[in-house]
């Protein structure tokens, strides 16, 4: 059956218009309602005020905003917004949004951040006995970047820094709070000399990498030495610089060590 061309139908009233299959309307059609049992193909722009469902393969552009009253928005791709207003609730990839707080367990990149208050989680460093009075202190970045360790006995022979992100040219900082529970030789020690380990035997295990051993750098002609006095507290900071090249190549990492030792109760005078 040949197609029927109907030109310039506008504001048509009265009975039904019978159109054979394949009818083509080249003018404007105005109707109060319409029902289509098959597909509708529109080559130009579709303008509408109220619809129930939209299944779009291409781009949807809204001139004055989108109001979602129920059901939420399920986006498989990336959502880009110039601003956000309202409480943060729900889930994000790698973390959660709870109330007005953001918790991300994966890697997050923020170009500009203003923080009124920051709280760092402190975790207890895991220890593994090497025998002969030497232990490995494990600092896992998935638990935080500040760790505590009680020097009850033995030497901190190796510090292991693991699961830190390797993304671009970046630095991951670890702080270790050592507490000397008893005086040496019954207590524990550790410094950046070869004999006692800490700083010269650093195991790096970046996220997704098998790991390797390297040494930490200290300031010229200095050594980070832990106190041997009972109840003293030492704070040692290790900074891992990754230059953004091969993640498994030890040459692309540098570890820097600094220490503030011998913290104890005292007096401050003016």
Q: Can you walk me through this structure?
A:
With 270 residues, this protein is mainly beta. Among the domains are: 1-35, no CATH class; 123-263, no CATH class. 0% of the residues lie in helices and 33% in strands. The protein contains no helices and 17 strands. It is elongated. It starts with a strand and ends in a 7-residue tail after the last strand. The model has no long low-confidence stretch (mean pLDDT 81).
What's the helical proportion of residues? under 10%
What's the mean pLDDT score? Answer: 81
> What structural category do the secondary elements indicate?
mainly beta
Write down the overall geometry.
elongated
Short description:
This protein is mainly beta and 270 residues long. It is 0% helix and 33% strand. It has strands at residues 5-6, 24-25, 90-92, 95-98, 101-104, 122-124, 126-131, 134-140, 146-151, 154-162, 170-180, 188-189, 202-205, 212-214, 216-217, 233-242, 253-263.
Strand and helix layout:
Layout: E1 5-6, E2 24-25, E3 90-92, E4 95-98, E5 101-104, E6 122-124, E7 126-131, E8 134-140, E9 146-151, E10 154-162, E11 170-180, E12 188-189, E13 202-205, E14 212-214, E15 216-217, E16 233-242, E17 253-263
Parallel strand pairs: 1-2, 6-9, 8-10, 9-11, 10-12, 10-13, 15-17
Antiparallel strand pairs: 3-4, 4-5, 7-8, 11-16, 13-14, 16-17
Provide tags for this entry.
about 270 residues; mainly beta; 6-stranded mixed β-sheet; 17 strands; about 35% strand
